[in-house]
Amino acid sequence: MKKLKMAMVGGGVGAFVGKIHREAVRLDGGVEVVAGMFNRDPAQNAQMGDAIGVAPGRLYASWQELIAGESSLPAAARADFIAICTPNHLHYPVAKAALEAGFHVMCEKPMTLTRAEAEELEDLVARTGRVFGLMHTYAGYPMVKLAHDLIARGDVGKVCKVVVEYAQGSFRKMDFSQPLDKRNKWKMDPACAGKSCCMSDIGVHAAHLVEYVTGLKIESLLADLSSFVAPKGLDDDGSVLLRFEGGAKGVLVASKVATGEENGLRLRIYGDRKGLVWKQENPNILRVRAQREPEQTWKRANPYVREVSESSARASRPPAGHPEGYIEGFANHYLNFCDTIRAVDAGDTPTPAMLDFPGVHDGVRGLRFIDAVVASNAAGGIWTPV
Amino acid sequence: MKKLKMAMVGGGVGAFVGKIHREAVRLDGGVEVVAGMFNRDPAQNAQMGDAIGVAPGRLYASWQELIAGESSLPAAARADFIAICTPNHLHYPVAKAALEAGFHVMCEKPMTLTRAEAEELEDLVARTGRVFGLMHTYAGYPMVKLAHDLIARGDVGKVCKVVVEYAQGSFRKMDFSQPLDKRNKWKMDPACAGKSCCMSDIGVHAAHLVEYVTGLKIESLLADLSSFVAPKGLDDDGSVLLRFEGGAKGVLVASKVATGEENGLRLRIYGDRKGLVWKQENPNILRVRAQREPEQTWKRANPYVREVSESSARASRPPAGHPEGYIEGFANHYLNFCDTIRAVDAGDTPTPAMLDFPGVHDGVRGLRFIDAVVASNAAGGIWTPV
Amino acid sequence: MKKLKMAMVGGGVGAFVGKIHREAVRLDGGVEVVAGMFNRDPAQNAQMGDAIGVAPGRLYASWQELIAGESSLPAAARADFIAICTPNHLHYPVAKAALEAGFHVMCEKPMTLTRAEAEELEDLVARTGRVFGLMHTYAGYPMVKLAHDLIARGDVGKVCKVVVEYAQGSFRKMDFSQPLDKRNKWKMDPACAGKSCCMSDIGVHAAHLVEYVTGLKIESLLADLSSFVAPKGLDDDGSVLLRFEGGAKGVLVASKVATGEENGLRLRIYGDRKGLVWKQENPNILRVRAQREPEQTWKRANPYVREVSESSARASRPPAGHPEGYIEGFANHYLNFCDTIRAVDAGDTPTPAMLDFPGVHDGVRGLRFIDAVVASNAAGGIWTPV
Amino acid sequence: MKKLKMAMVGGGVGAFVGKIHREAVRLDGGVEVVAGMFNRDPAQNAQMGDAIGVAPGRLYASWQELIAGESSLPAAARADFIAICTPNHLHYPVAKAALEAGFHVMCEKPMTLTRAEAEELEDLVARTGRVFGLMHTYAGYPMVKLAHDLIARGDVGKVCKVVVEYAQGSFRKMDFSQPLDKRNKWKMDPACAGKSCCMSDIGVHAAHLVEYVTGLKIESLLADLSSFVAPKGLDDDGSVLLRFEGGAKGVLVASKVATGEENGLRLRIYGDRKGLVWKQENPNILRVRAQREPEQTWKRANPYVREVSESSARASRPPAGHPEGYIEGFANHYLNFCDTIRAVDAGDTPTPAMLDFPGVHDGVRGLRFIDAVVASNAAGGIWTPV
């Protein structure tokens, strides 16, 4: 298996998610970080490069230089793909430039600040044929993949109702009377973060999770956003009614002010044959329920999981009973993303299992979701197409 | 302690909730069922009277005869209160007649079919000074009372967000192509059940639970009702956005088509200091969470519960670690309801602890909730005052 | 259904378990407390009689007078059975006298102080044909009955390993430097409590639970008892290795010093086809597991429970999803005990379902267990037949 | 931070635990696998080397050649440490040779087949000053480290009782009538696995976990081993009574025939101030209980964890609410092991936090435990010093 070369933009000293990206790619050993523009501060940039073994010549002072520099290298040496772990507002220009320069791209979410940018990237991916991954982490968990496959097989029947919550309490400990520190600025300054805070940061994960697992698109929604502790105009909480194509309905709740919650992403799906429950904080199980039958708890990496979900099996490392976590979820996306790159670069057609990672279309869906949520809320709560 | 005499209307052979009422009053021993009009069928009526030891002379053929007959007895012999366990449409006329005849009343929910009826009862209770209890069972659980008291004391801080779910899957096993049997007719024939099915049957419990625990009134709401398996026009599922007086917001989800759920009433409350989680199916614990502190699990009947909640302590029978359940929840309402009757009948003022049971004002709130939900939904989803 | 008349010895003002007995019999309405010797203190005795409506003429100053007094009444008036809720050392003399006087008996555990007494009662029950119930509460829970029936049907296969824990922490808050109060004296003064404390108080429940659920007798055991906080010679903790007839093995752990535990009775059973897990503090579920199959959670009062366990179905009041608790467990034993009395008194043969309550043979087993535990421990830990 | 060079013996194609070792070292990026003797089959050995990027010149045909070959390299090129993932019987000779050749060693458990061998390695480590790690994985979990630190700080008080279970059901699906496949041969052929199967495979983990967390040594034990499905003489289940230095007592249960269990390692510890509960299958929480206080659930990576446990904080990657798992547990041992190597190689004294990984003394303890268990059982169950 060919080791792929990764260049990273963002994710430097002090960054949370960039570190997870690096841990995730290292875990399975098929990727090497060869280049980076981690921090704008040269000293920090050098420090990170040194820490992870990037040659000084491959450390760049700007993302523009990174793309130019890597492009100028011989094919065998240059990065195969670029991972974008910057603040939100840079996702679009970096991704655009990277795709245009012929690189595959792994991008953090939300994909862009606007729907127009997202659709432009969608076109660009189609035109360039480059592989584009979007880090909607939670679809990387094996039991989420199982849920997706159980629904796709028809075992759950026709989905009629969905409840998804993404509850965090982190804003409860923030002091909004002080200027934002860098990391929070990314999430809360509209110039960096886009037109939404809570919905753009975590609501969009919940929306993606629901669409991924059910295989259904949200057709319209009605939102009520709040700013309980955040400055006016910046949502830190929201509740959204959902209507899906085909008639299913649902509720999405996202909050940064849910006191006492850590990373409470929870999903309930009710079909006409089965109901499913999954919770991110105990991710190795999926509860499967039918009316008047004992509730079932499916556990990761069992033969009975493998039988119905190849993608869940592919996404499992240690045997049943030995839990996996968040980093492994990231790693699973990278595994499929990289296998797809290898196939594409070899001129082969990736298998469906390889293609089981979020991509540019999901990114467009995310921006349409954010747009619709903000518009619905601004109109005082009306049904708004997505 | 004076044993109170209870007359029962409805709750005969084959009825679910009437049996629970009788078990609940027997449990604590302060009530005796002395009269009844249990079933309209005379043979069944006699059978029930015999089974529970009601003298044949106190078995009545109609509720009108029951009220007349009991009224004609000397004060020492006649029923102290009338428990109404009939289909919904009879709650109002029976309650009205009972109050007018001077009886205290314990009534099943929803209190009436219409808001006008509810308000009429509210006036009548004020005018007659009779004690009126409404069986919103779930407020009878000790850990729900604790949640109420923690919020009332300010321990949770200002409540900002509420998520309440009441998920049942029972309609999944019903055959709607067949004529409804008697019990289901009550819940699904608008002539018996009122203008809503799911919201009137269980949504109203969730709404009451939220208002009771938070001490906040729902100011306005926005609803999306569905008929997934029930006949058109009859809601079997709904999602409701909530806005409370003072600025808190919330979501209420109620469903009869939530495949695999039994009696999934779950409550999450987020204040600016603490968050609370309670689940009816494991009711003896309350989770109390604060940001960056270990999550706490409070357990029924402990000294630390008693210290902050007299009403929770009053509502506990066996010591900590020995679970209580649903019947005990009913019984707790009866305990307070009966203590209040004893105080009122003795010319005393009931203590606040005695008054901790749902009453006629909650009944009016319930009808206003149902009205608003139906109206909001009919209008295609607009914010509607409650 | 004939209402049975109950006389009670012990369980007076301030007693914990006597109150539960009364709540349990009231719950289902088939029993009336007609006589009692509740407290030795006359004022307290009168207070209790008044509180629960026992006629003054049926309040007795001693248990001897109660038996004599009730015996002298006409058959239609006198008590049908005597419930014994005294300190342990009185179980035997009261039960003996009651049986000899022709009363049926419901007795608290442990049945007697010595094995010889227990065997004498066993003979007496056989000779008199009276119905004898022993309040091993936990066998009254519906999901314990289900576990028993699943094993009896062979669904679990041959049982090979059992782990049962009964962990309480209550001794952690006791001040052993002070003289014991009355209630603790019962449990800790060998003259009242017998030769063991922890094992006699709770270990014997665990032993009964295991034998009831598996249907297997403990053949021999090896014990290690401790006195961590209790006075020397009084066990407050113990671990016991178990060997069952037919080759199964097990471990029994009981402790009064398990800090933070409330009433932590937990059972795991491993057969060659299935494994079962039940926990008293969340008693409405039973987990059923097989190798390489999703774990199942069976929930009380479902049709699928009824199909395999009539005794579990009989022991359920409200429908699935509406939890039952500890008092209901007591009540279930009384239901079967009373049905058996009715059958025996009518000259009929009780059905197997009626006979599903612990009795005098279980009481003998309990004393043999206690004897063996104490003997094994005293010998420094050797295998000792039960 | 200097990248360390690792050579691996065993863990080749088809091996479970070798793969985990490699994932674990890759995760944090401080280690490079430079040499290996993975499989004895040359083709498989080459295949593995190729897959993970080991240069053909560093692939060896035997562990003896690996040690000789690496020793012959210049210091800057040769492996810093050797990871031993072979069948049990090879741990000793490989570790011995590696230490004598000056390599640091990371070894799978049980460390050796006999206590004499273990003690010889202990001497050798002392003599050579080499760093020796032993892969008792479960001590690598952050919440286990927290439990250790809470006890070490005195927060739990004097430990008096411990219950540890390690329940697996895997033997239920094995066909013992067939010759053992390679992987099972390692665990079940006494020539490879030593004198015990279940106790040597998983019981020794439980024993280590208990000694690590409590900081107490098991002084003596009494064992009852069984062969329910495995060939006679090969334990597949056992229960062990424990006595610790200082007076604490405990129970250890290990089983390979616990139908329906996956990797059910569960620990309960009761001190005179607090009780702790930890379960491997949901490892990111630790329950902390005190009598008459709400139960606390401590969650990984919170500030309140960091405040009391530096070692737990060091062992956490993503923030609270983002679960970690089994591979991360391995990785945590490697992190500390490698930091210790770096310190030792630099002539520095490792900090206590660095030294928080199992080592050669734990290996000796393990063999003493296995010896005592087998001896106690063979003697029919007598207290045996460890």
Briefly say what this structure is.
Chain A has 386 residues and is of the alpha/beta class. The first copy, chain A, has two domains: 4-138 and 334-364, Rossmann fold, CATH 3.40.50.720; 153-314 and 378-385, Dihydrodipicolinate Reductase, domain 2 (2-Layer Sandwich).
Architecture overview:
The first copy, chain A, is an alpha/beta fold. Chain A folds into 2 domains: 4-138 and 334-364, NAD(P)-binding Rossmann-like Domain (Rossmann fold); 153-314 and 378-385, Dihydrodipicolinate Reductase, domain 2 (2-Layer Sandwich). Helix content of chain A is 38%, strand content 22%. Chain A has 13 helices and 14 strands. Chain A has a 9-stranded mixed beta sheet with strand order 13-12-11-10-6-9-8-7-14. The first copy, chain A, has a 5-stranded parallel beta sheet with strand order 2-1-3-4-5, with helices on both faces. In chain A, helix 4 packs parallel to helix 5, helix 6 packs across helix 9 (198-214) and helix 9 (198-214) packs across helix 13. Chains in contact: A-B, A-C, A-D, B-C, B-D, C-D.
